[in-house]
Amino acid sequence: MIRLRKSPGYPFVFINTPVSGLPELFIRTLDLETSYLVQNPDRVIAARNAKLIKQGIKPEPWDGRIRLLKQSKQGNYYFPVGLLQTVIKTLKWYGVEPELDIRFNETEQEIPIEWRGPSLRDYQVDAFIRAKSSERCITQLPTGSGKSLLALKLITTLKKPTLLVVHTKELFNQWVENFEKYTTITPSKFNDKTKEFGFVTIAMVQSLDKWLQKKENKPPLFDVLVLDEAHHTPANTFYNVAMKCDARYRFGLTATTKREDGTDLLMVAGLGPIVTQVKPEDLVKCGSLSQPKFEFLSVPPTMIYGNTYQEIYKSGIVLNTERNALIIQRSKQLAAEGRQVYIHVEHIMHGKLLADISGFPFVYSATKNRSDIIDGFRSGDVPVLISTLLGEGVDIPNISAIIMAGGRKTEIGTIQKVGRALRPSDKSDAIVVDFLDKGKYLSIHAVNRYHAYIKFFGEYVLESVQK
């Protein structure tokens, strides 16, 4: 009999069977199911070996896989609780029905929180049911589809001590506002300035991870863990926090579960399996998101210089006079039509340059009055905003046009940013402006962004191109 027993006080599950009792083929299969290959493994392995040799250490053989299935000093295998369903499925594939002993140290405390938000939409209700019944899972819903409402509904329904983790100041403030607006409590705050724990605690992941690294610091017991923008879970800070919180209920929220670096498995390990996946295209069809209208502007030929990607990006994107002129021209046209325009840039230099030329405000991490400017943009007093900050999570429903000024190729970043303009409000559509960049690297990145649009928005991209 193979027994899966959760470790008391820690989010790990042990396979309580003598090593000799596990078939070698099963262990090899389980190893593959609970590990992933690093990007560019040959290069990574060579660099690792060279570093060890320089330190006078003989490198041990390594195949380039990061393994989440480990062995204790007693010889028992163990793995993160989020991979429980993966292990169970693997066992059953071999005809083994494991005995489960998955118990959490729960508070048995009911917190005084009630829901006073709107009724959930049909797709949100479905996601709610799947998440609540799964207890540990990842929910993938498009940007602007109300992931925060879903999480708040779960929290108010479970009524258990909750830790909610975010990674930006804007998201932190937005979650505080959402709790005060849609529930009957004001959450406690954990950041660099305030380190408070309460019935519900909203924590900046950087601050909490730093605090947890001190051995004398131990957080109170939470029954519910929520990670916003869960595709960041593989990052050291997020993953460390997740694996130091022994919550029974673990919910991850994200608009996309696909990571460019191939570390998707760490997301599942820290939270649980993906139980809901909804494409933006589906919600546009049912009217839950605004209809996107894509524009692909051709960048005039210009001198692009440099050999490295950084040099080419600077000359072909940041300092590209013709491209920047297109950005400002189209922004002014859209604003004149009464649209709320968000210009997203990746580099601070680019944002400052566009702001100097156009007169539009630019907001980035070091902007002292950034909250006031963003509030002005949210209210409509500021019709055009340039920023590096609004790519993820920030709720500004009245954005009706987004200009993808920063280029780049990542699928996650592309779809997250476009979602800023699709949040439902009184607008029927949203303009998405991108560029057919030219030059080494840049043209390929433009193609990658186009394919990301096709993947998530399908016919709406094709309709725009055919016009």
In short:
The chain has 467 residues and is of the alpha/beta class. The chain is built from 17 helices and 20 strands.
Question: What does this protein look like?
Answer:
- This protein is α/β, with parallel strands linked by helices and 467 residues long.
- It folds into three domains: 3-101, 2-Layer Sandwich (Translation Initiation Factor Eif1), CATH 3.30.780; 122-278, Rossmann fold (3-Layer(aba) Sandwich), CATH 3.40.50; 283-466, Rossmann fold, CATH 3.40.50.
- Helices cover 39% and strands 18% of the residues.
- The strands form four sheets. It has a seven-stranded parallel beta sheet, with helices on both faces.
The CATH topology name of the largest domain reads: Rossmann fold
Low-confidence stretches: none
Structural class: alpha/beta
Shape: globular
> Separation of termini?
64 Å
Please work out how many helical segments DSSP would assign.
17
Largest sheet: 7 strands, parallel
Secondary structure: elements and pairs:
Blueprint: E1 3-6, E2 12-16, H1 24-33, E3 35-37, H2 41-54, E4 65-67, E5 70-71, E6 77-80, H3 84-93, E7 99-101, H4 122-134, E8 136-140, H5 147-158, E9 162-166, H6 169-182, E10 188-190, E11 200-204, H7 205-212, E12 224-227, H8 236-242, E13 249-254, H9 264-271, E14 274-277, H10 280-285, E15 291-298, H11 309-318, H12 321-336, E16 341-344, H13 348-358, E17 362-363, H14 370-379, E18 384-387, E19 401-404, H15 411-419, E20 429-436, H16 442-457, H17 459-466
Parallel strand pairs: 1-7, 8-13, 8-14, 9-11, 9-12, 10-11, 12-13, 15-20, 16-18, 16-19, 17-18, 19-20
Antiparallel strand pairs: 1-2, 2-6, 3-4, 5-6
Helix pairs in contact: 1-3, 4-5, 7-8, 16-17
